[in-house]
Design a protein that fits this description.
alpha/beta; HsdR_RecA-like_helicase_dom_2; seven-stranded parallel β-sheet; Rossmann fold; Type I site-specific restriction-modification system R (Restriction) subunit; Type-I_R_enzyme_R_subunit; 617 residues; P-loop_NTPase; 5 domains; 11 strands; extended
Amino acid sequence: MKKKIKYPVLNKSENIFVMVDEAHRTQYKDLAFNMRRAIPNACYLGFTGTPIEKEERSTTRTFGDYIDTYTIEESVEDGATLPIKYEGRLPELKVEGNDLDEIFERAFADYSDEEKAEIKKKYATAQAIAEAPRRIERICLDIINHWEEKIAPLKAQIVTTSRRAVAIYKEKLDELNAPQSITIFSGGNQNDPPLIKKHHTPKEKQKQLIERFKKPDDPIKFLIVCDKLLTGFDAPVEQVMYLDKPLKEHNLLQAIARVNRRFENKNYGLVVDYYGGFDNLQEALAIFNQEDVENAATPVKDEEPRLQRRYRKVMRFFEDVNLDDLEECVLAFEDEDKRMEFKEAFKAFAESMDIVMPDPIADPYRDDLKTLGKIYKAVRNRYRDQNINVKGLGGKIRKIIDNHIRVSDISLLHEPVSILDEDKFDQVIKEKDKEKAKASEMEHAIRHTVNVKMEENPAFYQSLKERLEEIIEKQKQGRFDFAEQIEAMRGIINEIRNVRTKAEKLGLNEKEFALYELLEEESQSDNQPSEEVAEDRGEYEVDGDEEFKVNKELKELAQELMNNLKEMAVVDWKKKQNKVLKPMKRMIMRKLYQYEKFRDDLDNLTTQIMKLAKNIL
C-alpha cells in the first residue's frame, strides 16, 4: 500500500491573510487541508452569502465567529434586493410529499388500464415521474397562464430535474404556442438520445442566447435549465422561477436569489414550486443561521394581512371625501406633504395587490384599486407633481389602471395642458364647473411653468412667483374670493404668454431680455434709486406703448454683454475652466465695474450672470 505523503509546511508567518470566496463549500476537502498545513499560522477570512452549520461542515468552525453579517432582510430594507415570495401550484402533481402512485393516477387519469400499466413500467421512480411528458404538459399549460396573468412582460426561468426534462419542457411549450423559450444545459455528446441531442447548443451560441434573455425587449421570455445558471447568474429582468426540481440548503437559497434583483416595475421576486420542495422550507434551510435566512422567501398567501392593512391606510385619506367626486378628491391634496403621504400609501397598496393578483383574495379590492389609480393620476396631472408617478407600480397594476382611465372621458385624467397652449388651456378652465377648481388648475399650471422656465430668466419668473404667492395669500386671508383670484392669475398667465412680445417691444431678443431683467432687478435693489427716480433722471425711454418702458443704459449693457458671451461660448465652453470660464468671468466684472450701481454687489451679480449664461447659451 502506497504511503500518503503529508503536504509540507511552507511558511509559518502570522502575517499571511487568506481571503476565501464561496467559503461555505470550498474548504472541507484535501486541497483546503493542504493549504492550512502549508501556512499553518495564516489568518483565514471567509466570504459567503450562505454560511452553513452541519455536523460534517460548519462555516464558523472552519473560520471562527462572524466579523460582520448582512442578512437577507437588511438587503431588502436597504433596497439592494427585492423580497422573494413563493407559491405552490398543481399540488396534485407534486413529486415530493405525494405518493408516486397517486401522482401517476392523476397525471394519466384519461388513459386505459392497459396503457397505464405499460406506462408505469417506464415511470417507476420520482425522477421518472418528474419527467413524464403528460405531467410536464399540464405544468407548461399552467406556466403559460400564470406568466400571462401575473408576470408579463418580465421574464421567467424554468428549473427542471434533468437534461431530458429540459428538452420535454421546451417541446411542450412550443406545442402550446408559448412565448419564445431557450434551453441551456451542460454537456452534450453524440451518445445522447435524439431528444436531448436535438437541443444541444454550442457554448458560444449559449452565451448569445443568455444575453438576449437579459434584454427586456427581446422576445425570448423563458429560460429552461436543469443545472446551469442556478448560481451567479444575474438577470434583473427575471421575476419568476418555475421550480420543478428538488433543491435544498445553499443550492436552494442561491437558486431562488436569481429573482430578487431590482428592475423597473418589479416589486418582488417569485418562486412557483411544482415539485413540492417548498412545502417545508424551514427544513430545507435548516443548516443556516435562522437570523440570516429569516424571510428568505415568504408564501404569497402571507401577503393578505398586509394587503388589508395597506388598504385601510390608503382609504383613510377619503374618510370625509366623496370618492365618486374626482374633483373633490383632487382638491383634498392641495398640501404637498399630504400628497407625498398619499403617494406612499397608494404605492404600498398597489404593491400588495401586484403580489396577490390574480388570486381571489384580491377581488374585494379591485374596484377601489381602479378608483384610487384614477385619483392618483388626476392628482399628478393637477399638481404637475413629478414625484407622483407610475414608476414602481407592477406591470399588471398599471395595465388595470390604464384600461380604467382609457374608458373615462374626464379632462382631469388627460395629460396636463401647458398655459402656453392658449386655446386648449383656456378650454380646460372653461370646462370646470367650480370656481375653486378653476383657481386650483390655474395656480398649479402657473407654478409648473414658472419652475420649468426659472433658469431661462430668473429675475422675470421669480417676480411672477412672488406675485402668485401674494395672490394665494390674499385668497387664504379672505381678501380675495375665487373669482378675484382667477382674474389676478390671468394677468400672470398673460405675462408668461407675452414674454417674447415684451422683449421685442423693448428691442431685445429673449436671451438679452433675460439678462436685462437681471440687471434691472439689481439696479433697483434697496441701496439703488427706484424706477420712478431713474425715470426722472431720463434713464428710461418709452417705445410707443407706455407699458413697455426700457432703461436705455441697461439695455445697451445687456446687449453688449450677451454679444460678448456668445462669442466666447465655443464648443464645450462650460468644461474649459482656464480657456473660457475665467476669461468670461473677468470680462463680465470689467463691464459691470464701469457702473457704480453694480460695484457693491459685483461678485454676486457676476455669479448670477455666469449661471444664466450656462443655462441659456
